[in-house]
Amino acid sequence: MVVGGIAVGLLKLTTRGWQGMTKLKTQPAAGEAQLTERLRRHVQVLAGEIGNRNLYAAANLAEAARYVEGHLMQAGYTVESQPYQAEGQTVRNLIVTKPGTDPSLDPLLIGAHYDTAGNPGADDNASGTAALLELARWAGEHAFARTLTFVAFTNEEPPFFQTELMGSRVYARAAKARGKRIRAALILESIGYYTDAPNSQRYPPFYGLFYPNRGNFLGVVSNLRYRRLAGEVARAFKRRSRLPIESVAAPDFIPGVTWSDHWSFWKEGYQAVMLTDTAFLRNPNYHMDSDTPDTLDYAKLAAVVEGLRGVMEEFAH
Predict the structure, then answer these.
(1) Residues 27, 242: contact at Cβ < 8 Å?
(2) Which of 234, 144, 142, 140 is nearest to 186 (CA)?
(3) Cα separation, 187 vs 132, whole angstroms
(4) N or C end: fewer C-beta atoms under 10 angstroms in the chain?
């Protein structure tokens, strides 16, 4: 039976995940206090000051794009704009590249969407955008063998979700048409909401049998085809971060498995995973006006960034 097969696969993944799970340490890593405040400031500007960011609040969407672009430029990058038309308006993805020392290696891509679903979008997805900015800033100060590409996507949210006008779909389709190779795409999707409350974490049917009931961990999500990548990312993250992480590889039809920009890369045959706090399965503010900056845990968001630095170091050297 399909359900039985899923359960066996989940049990194997979860056994490895629990063995590597660590408790959140009391002392932050060096420089993490400053990182925490920078992340808080990014989210405050995007979700608190700019607010709703989508095609139907076009001025706000453009202001958010300028904010992201400005911080990438401050980090020393030349920003490539990928404009395209959606419902008669011009929207754009924002792309920067940290060249590696070995051009024979396929680039590693880190992406996050900066638009929202008609709400402030602190967790979804100012949290991912803030992490993207800080990862790009950090990468600019270091050398890597593999080229790193950072992309801020637009139009992830409805009504463009999983359509040809989704920003990541535009990017991935164009990359495939050019024959561009990508080692893997790491998509940052709603990564700022955490709670230690019992039974705060929900799951699709059967999944709760194998995973924690407290929403205090980061998730790595893949389909069955890219389950090895999910495991590699989770293991690299654990070696660097003090935040617990769980990985799952599941069929595409399971609710939530395809619900972000990684789907666009899967459509073109690129390896990709989603890094997430599980969004609607944990956060009661999902796609609501209450998704505001004060609801996020910035210390844990900083721990996510620290873990992702470790992933980037392992994948890019």
Answers:
(1) no
(2) 234
(3) 9
(4) N
Tokens at 16, concatenated: 């490895």
Report the top-level CATH class of 32-195+218-244+251-316.
alpha beta
| Position 317, amino acid | H
Number of Cβ within 10 Å of residue 113's Cβ equals 30
CB 242 within 8 A of CB 30: no
Can you name the residues that pair with 246 across neighbouring β-strands? 219
On the 0-12 / 13-18 / 19+ scale of CB atoms within 10 A, 1 is exposed
Tens of pLDDT along 131-163? Answer: 999 999 999 999 999 999 999 999 999 999 999
Every domain of the chain and the residues it spans: 32-195+218-244+251-316
**Nearest alpha-carbon partner for 263 in 156, 174, 180, 177:** 156
Residue 315 CB-density burial (10 A; 0-12 exposed, 13-18 middle, 19+ buried): buried
| Maximum C-alpha span of the chain | 54
CA dist 49 and 230 (Å) reads: 35
Instruction: Copy the structure tokens of residue 38.
Output: 């920078």
Beta strands in the chain (DSSP E): 80-86, 89-98, 108-113, 148-153, 184-189, 218-222, 245-249, 272-276
The string of pLDDT tens digits covering residues 39-60 is: 999 999 999 999 999 999 999 9
Whole-angstrom distance, CA of residue 133 vs CA of residue 8: 38
- DSSP strands (E only) in 204-251: 218-222, 245-249
User: What's the rounded Cα separation, in Å, for the pair 143 and 299?
Assistant: 26
Count of C-beta atoms within a 10 Å radius of residue 210: 20
